[in-house]
């Protein structure tokens, strides 16, 4: 599918659906990046559906605590919990998973929302370009480490959990170049300082959202169809967001102008995220592996569906499992126990 600028405008100006309401009594919801923006607005909506537990996974203790206070004031919900995780550090993700294994209990809805839009190359302590690690590698690690908890929840409580990746319509704007796809170490190339030129960093966020979709689709393809777990990805639309707070100069001016003309409110964008997590309760299987935009199933980009995209997806998956398996042996164990080596 190809998206034109007029398609984008049409989506932005279309009437927004009211937020979906589903009774979450007894269930646990975990939102990554929950202290601000889309994550916080989605968390507010989940709170009004009475979950037994609502976990806000945030990087900052002070900002997370402020979010808890705001959430209670806005909704009256008093059972929210703040758990700390820094996606710029693999060790922090591992520690979060350790804690969840000890006392997290069931996990019915996991919304992977956290992301950064880095304007220039900067390496993490793990040696990866920051937005690649935060938006893609650690997000994937987080999902794989918590996947067993979601599957066990399904088995023990006869329910169908949801794993939701917040992606973006920006994925239509990028492809992975042929010379990179032909590299036996595609992921390392994409994360190298040599590749991350100033020009490449201008579309870095779009690339990481493409990689999110590749991961979500690859994970879904390898999950046995009999496994009671729904994996999908959602675009919240172009919204007012702190994600672009580091924009400067002409880029900041253009973005400010576009916001005034086209942007959804952050709350409106969060409705799309909630829809991906709660919709189609009567027939959830229709959402397996799907990309959702404007509260509808949409076709992903032509590049993802093309033979070269399918090949890239499989290669990226193999590389990711190898990279993350060295970070935490539980990744390899999860892949071996719950996923098929043959793509469905």
Placed side by side, the strands forming the largest sheet appear as 3-2-1-4-5-6-7-8
Report the CATH superfamily.
Answer: NAD(P)-binding Rossmann-like Domain
Query: Proportion of β residues?
Result: 5-15%
* Secondary structure tally, helices: 14
- SS-based class: alpha/beta
Largest sheet: 8 strands, mixed
Domain module count: 1
Please state the second-level CATH architecture: 3-Layer(aba) Sandwich
Q: N- to C-terminal separation?
A: 22 Å
Instruction: Tell me, briefly, the overall form.
Output: globular
Q: From the alpha carbons, calculate the radius of gyration and give it in angstroms.
A: 19 Å
Low-confidence stretches: none
Residue-averaged pLDDT, rounded? Answer: 91
Give me the CATH fold name.
Rossmann fold
Question: What does it look like?
Answer:
The protein is an alpha/beta fold and 344 residues long. The chain has a single domain, classed as Rossmann fold (3-Layer(aba) Sandwich), CATH 3.40.50.720. The chain has an eight-stranded mixed β-sheet with strand order 3-2-1-4-5-6-7-8, sandwiched between helices. The longest helix has 28 residues. 45% of the residues are buried. The model has no long low-confidence stretch (mean pLDDT 91). This is WW domain-containing oxidoreductase. One of its GO terms (molecular function) is oxidoreductase activity. Keywords: Oxidoreductase.
